[in-house]
Amino acid sequence: MCPSERGFAMVVVVALLAILAVFGAALVVISTTQQVGAALDMQGVRAYYAARGGLEWGMYHVLRSGFGGCGGIDGKSIAYGGNLADFRVTLACTSSAHEEGDTALTTFSIVATACNDSVCPTASSPPPPSYVERQVRVTVGSN
Fold first, then answer.
1. Which of 14, 62, 77, 88 is a plausible cystine mate for 108, CB 3.0–4.6 Å?
2. E strands along 35-132, which residues?
3. What's the whole-model pTM score?
4. How does pLDDT run across 41-74, given as a tens digit for each residue?
């Protein structure tokens, strides 16, 4: 072995370890990003079902006789328990009267906004990284 070739293997090993360290760090970042994305997807599904529940509650109340239409639910905020304890729903409702032939019709437009913050939609700008919000709307009529 020539004196000028000493330590060549050590340089290769150090370079290989550096490459493996960068590869390992990239895998950790990708894995963490995947897990955070999956958790936000699950929170989005929960927010959707919270909004659907609020919408169903709103439709029940505006279509039930004697409840008073939109007056009882416009601006109403619903806090859930159980699996949806982190979520809150805010309802908005507008109504309009129409004549269809000889029949008087009232239509109700209900919007349910669900989020995992204390106020929906959130007042903080920008919202926190874990914030999710879903909004569903429906128009129903009664005569």
1. 62
2. 77-79, 88-100, 103-115
3. 0.75
4. 899 999 999 999 999 999 998 888 777 788 888 8
